[in-house]
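Working notes for the structural subgroup meeting. M.R. asked for a predicted model of this chain before we commit to crystallization trials. I am recording the input and output together here so anyone reviewing the notebook later can reproduce the run.

Input as submitted:
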Amino acid sequence: MDTQTPLSTVEDQGLSSAEAVEVLEELGRVFFQNSSTEGAAFPEIPDTELPNLEAKYRALVEQIPAVIFMAYLDRGIGEAYVSPQIEASLGFKQEEWLQDPVRWYQQIHPDDKQRWSVEAAEMFLSGKPLRSAYRVIARDGRVIWFHCEAKMMRHQDGRPWFIHGVAFDITDLKKTEAALQEERNLLSAFLDTVGALVVVLDPAGRIIRFNRACEQMTGYVFAEVEGRYVWELFMQPDEVEDFRLRLGAIHQSRPPQEYENQWVTRDGSRRLIAWSSTVLPGADARPPFIIATGIDITERKRLEKTILEVSAREQRRIGQDLHDGLGQHLTGIAFMSKVQQQRLAEKALPEAADAEKIVRLVNEAIHKTRELARGLLPVMCDASGLMSALQQCAAEAREIFGVDCQLQCEPPVLIDDINVANHLYHIAQEALNNAIRHGKARRIVIALSSVDGDGELTICDDGLGIAGRPAGGAGIGLHIMGYRAGMIGGWLDIGSGTERGTLVRCVFPLAKECSQDE
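Returned structure, recorded in token form:
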């Protein structure tokens, strides 16, 4: 039977599983022909070659930590060869393995047989090298992964001659890959079930990971955003440059950084996100990635703002009631008491002294009421109210603490929004108190100005500075100052003065219309 015709005439054919098995069965019959023939395990060596060349080649092959195999396609089973590593890998001796020419196929894992059949048959028909990984069952039942590379050699006339190849045991590699894949699956499941937003960026700012929470919040699926710059999709133009600078700072500074910015969703809505970003080292000396976790704080900020506005409105109402209600009532009592005192004094009655004491106590109550009203209602609802309140604050600092405190506000800055004015006043008041109590300042300058459409409030002192203050002295106050700045759409910066002391700087947008909360 001529078994070479289909191999030499059919090239590059796509095979079905049944066709592949049929080809392999036909090729297998070659090994049963002349099975008693004795022959060398390698091609015949010309007489001109050294007599020990085959022995040297065999010794070299058998030192390789892999299964080396070779089989002639035009001779019998006696011409096949497999290296001794077959016993170490699968538990079969060389002679035992070669006695059955289809043992290799029999030992292939059932789930891999169909694929191996197609790949091997295509190698026989097309002559293309076979490179594949599949599982083989050892004598003791263990499953061994092999990476196999085989090639078919031909005679000069194109007829198939023999197959030789090498199979490497990659079981440990496959176990490691499986463990890594399980870890990746666990990480993916965690990222997709966690409620926080998780984004992984490459050093240039392109998105390489985007969890399900991000998809739900933005309206984009990962396939739509993968590889795109994060600012192209989600950021407002005026925040891009600041984010790029922050991106560079994160790469240079390993500790996590926290910040807030607005993200624009697919439907055009804006969400305020609080981010925490850190560097994720890359493998194999690759540049590090940035992993950012975020929480959508839009509703929380809106609720906080509402609560603060309600609180401020109630505070102003109570202050107004104290000033216009209780204050006026006490003034009336003081007037009547004064009249009664004068009448008793005219009659030279001893009760006149008691009446005088009553008048003094009522006047003290009026003074305290006015102080309470001014504390609850520091800024009057007019455009110049903040300047007046800051001027009063500076005067009280001079009178009570004996420090040189001045207000600089030329040209005048008019703040129509009473909420903005109140927040700015409390920022200045907290900075002033910190400078006096913690910084031991003797000179303080409060400045209010406008630059390029934004307002700027600064409080500069000559005290000990940030580094010289007692630890924890004004931590909560500084936090509240920053929070107030954020509530009016601004930002706060606290640092050292030009020469010494501390400089508190708040930049905020100037509103054009007065906001009335009645």
